[in-house]
Amino acid sequence: WDLFYLGYSFVNDKHKDINELIYRAGYTYQTHAYMVTQEFAKKISKIENLYSDVVAYDEFLNVIHNQHPREDMKALYGEDLNFSFYAARTILAWQRKVKEGGDSAHDSDL
Protein backbone atom coordinates (compact mmCIF):
# COMPACT_ATOMS: atom_id res chain seq x y z
CA TRP A 1 0.00 0.00 0.00
CA ASP A 2 1.02 3.60 -0.56
CA LEU A 3 -1.68 5.48 1.36
CA PHE A 4 -4.05 4.27 4.07
CA TYR A 5 -7.09 6.44 4.89
CA LEU A 6 -8.03 6.82 8.55
CA GLY A 7 -10.61 9.58 8.04
CA TYR A 8 -12.49 10.10 4.76
CA SER A 9 -15.87 9.95 2.99
CA PHE A 10 -16.59 7.78 -0.02
CA VAL A 11 -18.12 9.52 -3.04
CA ASN A 12 -19.24 6.35 -4.81
CA ASP A 13 -19.46 2.62 -4.22
CA LYS A 14 -16.25 1.67 -6.06
CA HIS A 15 -14.37 0.76 -2.90
CA LYS A 16 -13.67 -2.99 -2.66
CA ASP A 17 -13.78 -5.18 0.42
CA ILE A 18 -10.39 -6.67 1.24
CA ASN A 19 -11.45 -8.18 4.55
CA GLU A 20 -13.64 -7.28 7.53
CA LEU A 21 -11.31 -4.40 8.45
CA ILE A 22 -10.03 -2.93 5.18
CA TYR A 23 -11.31 -1.56 1.86
CA ARG A 24 -9.34 -0.91 -1.32
CA ALA A 25 -10.26 2.75 -1.65
CA GLY A 26 -12.46 4.11 -4.41
CA TYR A 27 -13.24 7.78 -5.04
CA THR A 28 -13.05 9.67 -1.75
CA TYR A 29 -13.27 13.21 -0.41
CA GLN A 30 -12.94 14.96 2.95
CA THR A 31 -9.56 13.35 3.41
CA HIS A 32 -8.51 14.46 6.86
CA ALA A 33 -6.41 11.61 8.25
CA TYR A 34 -4.16 9.14 6.46
CA MET A 35 -0.81 7.37 6.60
CA VAL A 36 1.67 7.19 3.74
CA THR A 37 4.70 5.04 3.12
CA GLN A 38 8.17 6.24 2.26
CA GLU A 39 7.63 4.71 -1.17
CA PHE A 40 4.59 7.00 -1.60
CA ALA A 41 6.78 10.04 -0.92
CA LYS A 42 9.33 8.84 -3.48
CA LYS A 43 6.65 8.27 -6.12
CA ILE A 44 5.11 11.71 -5.48
CA SER A 45 8.49 13.39 -5.86
CA LYS A 46 8.82 11.95 -9.38
CA ILE A 47 5.65 13.60 -10.70
CA GLU A 48 7.11 16.25 -13.01
CA ASN A 49 4.22 18.74 -12.95
CA LEU A 50 3.38 18.35 -9.26
CA TYR A 51 3.99 22.03 -8.50
CA SER A 52 2.86 23.56 -11.78
CA ASP A 53 -0.55 21.83 -12.07
CA VAL A 54 -1.89 22.32 -8.57
CA VAL A 55 -5.35 20.96 -7.69
CA ALA A 56 -7.22 20.38 -4.43
CA TYR A 57 -5.56 17.63 -2.44
CA ASP A 58 -8.60 15.32 -2.43
CA GLU A 59 -8.79 15.62 -6.21
CA PHE A 60 -5.06 14.97 -6.55
CA LEU A 61 -5.23 11.81 -4.44
CA ASN A 62 -8.08 10.44 -6.54
CA VAL A 63 -6.14 11.14 -9.72
CA ILE A 64 -2.95 9.38 -8.67
CA HIS A 65 -4.69 6.17 -7.71
CA ASN A 66 -6.87 6.15 -10.84
CA GLN A 67 -10.23 6.80 -9.16
CA HIS A 68 -11.09 10.24 -10.51
CA PRO A 69 -14.16 10.22 -12.80
CA ARG A 70 -13.08 13.18 -14.97
CA GLU A 71 -10.90 12.42 -17.98
CA ASP A 72 -9.18 15.83 -17.90
CA MET A 73 -8.09 15.19 -14.32
CA LYS A 74 -6.93 11.65 -15.13
CA ALA A 75 -4.69 13.03 -17.88
CA LEU A 76 -3.22 15.82 -15.74
CA TYR A 77 -0.40 13.86 -14.07
CA GLY A 78 -0.07 10.97 -16.51
CA GLU A 79 -1.84 7.65 -16.61
CA ASP A 80 1.05 5.37 -15.63
CA LEU A 81 0.90 6.23 -11.93
CA ASN A 82 0.67 3.07 -9.87
CA PHE A 83 -0.51 4.02 -6.39
CA SER A 84 -2.41 1.66 -4.07
CA PHE A 85 -4.81 3.25 -1.58
CA TYR A 86 -6.63 1.42 1.18
CA ALA A 87 -9.01 2.51 3.93
CA ALA A 88 -10.08 1.33 7.34
CA ARG A 89 -13.69 0.10 7.14
CA THR A 90 -14.33 1.85 10.44
CA ILE A 91 -13.50 5.56 10.43
CA LEU A 92 -10.59 6.00 12.85
CA ALA A 93 -10.30 9.81 12.80
CA TRP A 94 -12.99 12.48 12.68
CA GLN A 95 -13.21 16.16 11.93
CA ARG A 96 -13.66 18.57 14.84
CA LYS A 97 -16.93 19.43 16.55
CA VAL A 98 -18.60 22.74 15.68
CA LYS A 99 -17.74 24.21 19.09
CA GLU A 100 -14.07 23.39 18.38
CA GLY A 101 -14.03 25.04 14.96
CA GLY A 102 -15.54 22.23 12.85
CA ASP A 103 -18.80 22.39 10.94
CA SER A 104 -22.22 20.88 11.65
CA ALA A 105 -22.19 18.62 8.59
CA HIS A 106 -19.15 16.73 9.85
CA ASP A 107 -19.57 16.76 13.61
CA SER A 108 -17.82 14.13 15.70
CA ASP A 109 -17.92 12.94 19.28
CA LEU A 110 -14.15 12.57 19.41
Provide structural commentary.
The protein contains three helices and five strands; from the N terminus they run E-E-E-E-H-H-H-E. With 110 residues, the chain is of the alpha+beta class. A five-stranded mixed β-sheet has the order 2-3-5-1-4. A hairpin with a 4-residue loop joins strand 2 and strand 3 (22-24). The longest helix is centred in the middle third of the chain and has 8 residues, at 38-45. The protein is globular.
Key descriptive features of the protein:
single chain, 110 residues, alpha+beta, 20% helix, 24% strand
How many strands in all? Answer: 5
**Estimated structural class:** alpha+beta
End-to-end C-alpha gap: 27 Å
Using the alpha-carbon principal axes, give the shape: globular
Total of DSSP H or I helical runs spanning 4+ residues? 3
Percent range for β-strand residues:
15-25%
Gist?
Helices cover 20% and strands 24% of the residues. The protein is an alpha+beta fold and 110 residues long.
What does the secondary structure layout of this molecule look like, with pairings?
Blueprint: E1 3-10, E2 16-17, E3 22-24, E4 28-36, H1 38-45, H2 57-64, H3 71-76, E5 85-88
Parallel strand pairs: 1-5
Antiparallel strand pairs: 1-4, 2-3, 3-5
